Amino acid sequence: MTAASTLSAVIMTPFLTAKLAGQYVAVDAAGLLFSTLQVVLLPVLVGAFLNQYFQGLVKFVSPVMPPIAVATVGVLCGNAIAQSSSAILTSGKQVVLASALLHASGFFFGYIFSRMLGLDVTSSRTISIEVGMQNSMLGIVLAGQHFGNPLTAVPCAVSSVCHSILGSALAGFWRQTVPTQKQD
Predict the structure, then answer these.
(1) C-alpha neighbours within 13 Å on the C-beta side of residue 65
(2) Which of 15, 30, 56 is the last residue of a domain?
(3) Under a CB-based contact definition with an 8 Å cutoff, are residues 86 and 151 in contact?
(4) pLDDT, tens digit, for every residue of 35-71?
(5) Which of 82, 114, 125, 147 could serve as a FRET partner for 28 with CA atoms 20 to 30 Å apart?
(6) Are 96 and 158 in contact (CB under 8 A)?
(7) Is 154 inside any structural domain?
(8) Structural domain range at position 115
(9) Mind telling me which residue stretches traverse the membrane in this protein (predicted)?
């Protein structure tokens, strides 16, 4: 995650959840803030610290970290989806459509706005992928820790699947159609 998206997640998640839930939901904003700091900021800080002071360890574990991350996402998404499979079957089309539109617009506007700001193609692609693939796992973790109903994690789990499919397709398309070297 970029510094801007990390800061946005830490500040906005508790605030928006408390203000825009659509119905009365008891929200522990301080608890959400603390959990968000644990899930978003702490790993970034630990990673930066390890990268700065333990480069040998980082070089050793780096090859195995992507598969571990993918497996973790798979287990968390699978758990959220399995607990709510009947709800997904009844309203899944709307959740999938909303999630796909959310991520597609993130990919599109992330790229367009960064190009409008004068960033090169490679940086714009990176920002597009970052915006389009915002961390749905944060939503699953927060929903599981702070809301008793397992259905609250379903949109995040579906969202994670959608952004993985759309992000992979977009990255593959860009790799095949436009060189990845810096361009203006």
Answers:
(1) 7
(2) 56
(3) no
(4) 878 877 787 788 888 888 999 998 999 888 877 877 7
(5) 82
(6) yes
(7) yes
(8) 68-176
(9) 31-50, 57-82, 94-113
Assign 24 a pLDDT band (cuts: 50, 70, 90).
low
Match 């597609």 to its residue by tokens: 104
Residues 48 and 82 in one domain: no
Position 184 in a domain: no
Contact between residue 124 and residue 111 where contact means Cβ atoms under 8 Å apart: yes
Predicted model pTM: 0.54
Number of domains observed in the structure of the chain: 2
Q: Measured between alpha carbons, how far is residue 96 from residues 13, 102, 139, 156, 174 in Å?
A: 21, 10, 16, 10, 24
CA-nearest of 5, 49, 17, 44 to 145 is 17
Residue reference for tokens 């706005």: 113
More confident residue, 164 or 113: 113
Q: What is the pLDDT of residue 184?
A: 47
- 136 and 76, same structural domain? yes
